[in-house]
Write a structure and sequence with these properties.
The complex is a heterodimer of chains A (225) and B (411). Chain A has one domain: P-loop containing nucleotide triphosphate hydrolases (Rossmann fold). Helix content of chain A is 36%, strand content 28%. The longest helix of chain A has 18 residues. Chain B has two domains: 199 residues, no CATH class; 186 residues, no CATH class. Helices cover 57% and strands 18% of the residues of chain B. A six-stranded mixed beta barrel of chain B has the order 2-3-8-5-7-6, surrounded by four helices. A two-stranded antiparallel ribbon of chain B has the order 11-12. Chains A and B meet through helix 2 and helix 3 of A and helix 1, helix 12 and helix 16 of B.
């Protein structure tokens, strides 16, 4: 079943001297449970494409249907709510809230969703266990390694029970061992939870794990295997 | 959890937060301290005026206050004393004859206001007898006694047992004079008062002025100044007939000396004005600090927006951070201000050599601080309001952040 349907997507930045076509007519369909890597050279438009899919940026033209809903029709408030309930984000620099512990970081997104305290604590504990962070619940991000922080980040993305997780260069700041661990963990979650992962990456190791690789160049899909 | 994040965010840069807290503390100390000083000074002036000069309520013949004519006396004064003394709020009531006169000695002369009083009655109304610094207050045993202010004594070169000649126009308009013996000298904190008021027995002055048995003024003193309006209203209804037929005119100390009332209002106004000026300066410091904090956390705020935190919640988080800063600073500031005010309320702030200058305008040289509970509360509320208002600009800056730009910065 297709959870993301992208039709003739365009994004042109006009705030520069010369208009820049970052995304130039991408059409793509992503099925539930996919483990997809969006690859391409720097400046190819993959991050812009990911931002558009995540509802962080608005397309100049084209449609993005997530679960059948065209997010182009949502106003900014509705978009925030949509992101909160339907999309999980994993960032390159982890981006955890530094003053919160691991469990609080994971539970925070559920608080935004209005889930009761007891329930969100229980879910956060389970997610930290699943991501291999049992015993690290009360550590603050500064007390965790890069790999562990990214695992918390994945647990946080999962906590909102999203339709899919967008991960922008999730392994860029990790060493080989941590990258391997993280990829294995995400592959496992993909399998066990049927969670859809979409990565943007340069990393060969991520590409090797991906079951589908979409290559973008000059804002266009040049291959989809 | 938003409140918890806001609180923890405060301590990410401890030094910066502590500087702002210290600024709030100093601001409140300055505002409350200056109010304590000004209010204490004015309060002392008002209390001194009531205790030594005015009393709480005075009765006169209606024309007397416009023109201190010697024949404007109160008919049947004892009836008013009797009614006033029956009220539980009343400490005492005293009859007085008040005449403008020329006081002279062999070396100098000056105009004075001569007050004829019944010593035992007057002691219940004013505290001049407590201010006698040499000799004695008036009593029935002395021969034509007069109590003068120390300042007047210096001016007229009077000593105890010196003779003071008082010249005045009597009830028939004839210039008459009498000799009084200085039995005591008093000193209040008001040099001008001391220099212009002398006290004699009512019968001695009555005989000299040709108005024996008559009085110009009835002064009523209360146990608690706050009950002035209540007692005034009670007396007004008791003496309604006499007031209506213009036999008497009754006034509170505020009506007799509107300047004192204005001083109280002005002090309150300036205290708040001073506090508001301090808080405005503080607001700029808070805005600057919070803007810095927001700019440093641009990425984090962008991420919060990306994952689904609404602008309202981000605004609340930043406002709470500012509010917590102000509340911590406000509470510490109030606590320290309370200590400062209590210290000076107990020991007083001594102006030493400047004190003599202050007594020329009726103020004590030692100021005992006073701050009302209302001012403490108002200071705290104003600090909180300042914090909320100061958080608006940094919050708007945060809300203008585009999550895409923030994420781009991140990656």
């Amino acid at each position: 079943m297709s959870i993301i349907q992208i039709n003739n997507l365009h994004k042109t930045y006009t705030d520069t001297k010369v208009p820049v076509k970052a995304v130039n007519g991408i059409s793509l369909s992503i099925e539930e449970g996919e483990f997809t890597a969006i690859v391409g050279p720097s400046g190819s438009g993959k991050t812009t494409f990911l931002n558009l899919m995540g509802g962080l940026d608005t397309p100049t033209e084209g449609d993005i249907l997530i679960g059948g809903k065209n997010i182009k029709d949502l106003n900014s408030r509705q978009l925030i709510d949509f992101r909160l309930h339907h999309i999980g984000f994993v960032f390159q620099s982890y981006n955890l809230i530094p003053v919160l512990t691991a469990i609080e970081n994971v539970a925070f997104i559920m608080e935004l969703q209005g889930i009761p305290k007891k329930e969100r604590h229980q879910i956060a504990m389970e997610l930290l266990k699943k991501t291999g962070l049992e015993g690290k619940e009360n550590y603050r991000p500064g007390e965790l390694s890069g790999g562990q922080q990214q695992r918390v980040s994945v647990a946080r993305a999962l906590a909102s029970k999203p339709k899919f997780i967008l991960a922008d260069e999730p392994t860029a700041n990790l060493d080989s061992a941590s990258t391997e661990d993280l990829l294995n963990m995400m592959a496992e979650l993909n399998k066990s939870e049927n969670m859809t992962f979409i990565f943007s990456t340069h990393d060969k190791r991520v590409m090797d794990k991906a079951r589908r690789i979409v290559t973008i160049d000059d804002g266009k899909v040049v291959s989809d295997v | 959890m938003i409140a918890s994040i806001a609180w923890r965010n405060l301590w990410r840069n401890k030094l910066r937060s502590l500087i702002i807290i210290a600024a709030v503390v100093v601001g409140i100390l300055g505002g409350v301290g200056s109010d304590g000083f000004m209010e204490g000074m004015v309060d002392q002036r008002v209390n001194t005026a009531i205790a030594n000069e005015l009393s709480n309520i005075q009765l006169h013949q209606p024309d007397f206050l416009l023109n201190n004519e010697i024949n404007y006396t109160i008919p049947n004064p004892d009836q008013y004393i009797e009614v006033a003394n029956q009220m539980p709020e009343v400490k005492g009531a005293s009859k007085r004859i008040i005449c403008g006169a020329m006081a002279s000695t062999a070396t100098a002369a000056t105009s004075v206001l001569i007050c004829g009083v019944i010593p035992e009655q007057e002691k219940k109304v004013t505290g001049i007898y407590k201010k006698v610094i040499s000799g004695n207050y008036l009593n029935d045993e002395q021969r034509i006694p007069v109590v003068v202010g120390k300042k007047l004594a210096d001016k007229l070169e009077l000593n105890l047992n010196s003779k003071l000649i008082v010249t005045l126009a009597d009830s028939s308009g004839t210039i008459t004079y009498g000799a009084f013996i200085v039995v005591g000298m008093y000193q209040t904190s008001n040099n001008l008062y001391d220099e212009s008021h002398i006290f004699v027995r009512i019968n001695d002055l009555g005989k000299l002025a040709g108005i024996t048995g008559q009085v110009h003024e009835i002064a009523i003193s209360l146990f608690d100044n706050k009950q002035t309006s209540l007692v005034f209203n009670k007396l007004s209804s008791s003496f309604k007939q006499q007031i209506d037929n213009k036999s008497i005119d009754m006034r509170t100390w505020e009506q007799l000396e509107p300047l004192l009332k204005s001083m109280i209002e002005m002090t309150a106004f300036f205290s708040y004005l001073f506090l508001i000026i301090i808080l405005i300066a503080l607001a700029f410091a808070i805005i600057n600090t919070m803007t810095m904090a927001i700019l440093e956390r641009k990425r984090e705020i962008g991420m919060l927006m990306a994952i689904g935190m609404t602008r309202g919640k981000i605004f609340t988080m930043i406002m709470l951070e500012t509010l917590f800063l102000a509340i911590v600073g406000g509470l510490v500031g109030l606590l320290m201000s309370y200590g400062l005010v209590e210290y000076y309320a107990h020991y007083g702030l001594d102006f030493g050599s400047m004190g003599s200058g202050m007594s020329y305008i009726g103020y004590d040289s030692i100021v005992y601080f006073k701050v009302t509970d209302g001012f403490y509360l108002a200071s705290f509320i104003l600090v909180a309001i300042t914090a909320v208002l100061s958080s608006i600009s940094p919050s708007i800056k945060a809300l203008k952040l585009n999550p895409v730009d923030a994420i781009r910065e991140l990656n």
